[in-house]
Amino acid sequence: MFATGIENSVPRIRNGRERVDQMEVCGFYERWEEDFTLVEEMGIHYLRYGPPIHKTWLAPGKYDWKFSDVTFADLKRRNIVPITDLCHFGVPDWIGDFQNPDFPELFERYAGEFARRYPWVQLYTPVNEMFICAVFSAKYGWWNEQGTTDRTFVTALKHIVKANVLAMRAILRARPDAIFIQSESSEYFHAENPAAIKPAEILNSQRFLSLDLNYGRRVDSEMYEYLLDNGMTREEYHFFLDNRLKQHCIMGNDYYVTNEHRVRADGSTGPSGEVFGYDEITRQYHERYLLPVMHTETNMWEGPLGTEAVDWLWKEWANVLRVRNTGTPIVGFTWYSLTDQIDWDVALREKNGRVNPLGLYDLDRNIRAVGRAYKQLIKDWRDVLPTMSSALTVPVVMPHECDEDWAVRQREHAAERLRHKIKAEPSMADGGA
């Protein structure tokens, strides 16, 4: 699955007084038809995209679907598969932030309403980058609640991951053969000196917390104590163990040059640059969860030479092929995003209006060098990879196929499997899939 994405981050900053809306500042609301045409021209059939949550979800049970109706209908007409991103770093004003304990159940209903309205949509990322969302919002103090303690971080994390799990359950009730592609940041923390080994070990355990909880994997004893010491209850922890939906998931992982960190003796961190790279870090994550993998985000600025982004694309693709050739089932690759972005050089903490030249196209919708390179890469590799013996087939139903007999049978068989699962696991029966 060769993919790109529409950047739809919507965190709030300045103690909640201002919202950063990437689709607005990048011109998507006015130029979405043109952008979808660019996706087609690239030869891309998979697009990470979701409705603007703060404009769509107006109140409990109240929605404005107008923009979603026209954009998703157009994707269906073009036979582009959306990987639907329902929550990308922000929530509507009326919810507040990720400290709100009502958020998971409210989001469950929102996801269910979306899935029922668009029954042809099969691929979902309910909550994007759960770990980064919790860290930036509730540990670094950058977004939303702007928390800076372990307790605010754990509170945000448990609410975000529970929302993701409940959303998966709700979507499966509407679309039993739904596939969930977790777009999660793949991180690593390097000790700068011997005194930094212990804090680096702790950070390297914390990086797995979102996916451990999401996939119902027992955390290690140190992380269990950390969670309970910072506000998670035993009952909340067991919710995740009792609601394992891992069999419906692909482990999407994101990798940027900023994903590896140097750790100092006091536990503070700084950038290390690329040390291990995508191949080694993906191996660590795959060995932990044993799921098919999709590379769901990467990019690089088009620098002064004009070749920096193209060189990074080549390097990431070489890493993807190595991951695949060493036996890890990897099913897709993504350059994120379709167009340049705004103010990610300061992690959206300020509204400076600075263009970040890292899209396949610039904001005037002129193709960049990396766009031409990605288009050629897709053309070269699309027909080669499926012929290799190690290819993994994902049962994706293209939009134009959703009413065909085999697609209907696939959904019926998936629904029957879910019914058996409910009977076998009584805890899933209470509103579960």
Automatic annotation (TrEMBL):
| GO terms (BP aspect) | carbohydrate metabolic process
Pfam families in the record: Glyco_hydro_1
A GO molecular function assigned to this protein is: hydrolase activity, hydrolyzing O-glycosyl compounds
The organism's place on the tree of life at top rank: Bacteria
UniProt entry keywords in alphabetical sequence:
Hydrolase
The cross-references to PANTHER family, in alphabetical order and at most eight, read: ALPHA-L-IDURONIDASE (PTHR12631), BETA-XYLOSIDASE-LIKE PROTEIN-RELATED (PTHR12631:SF10)
Q: What protein does this entry describe? A: Glycoside hydrolase family 1
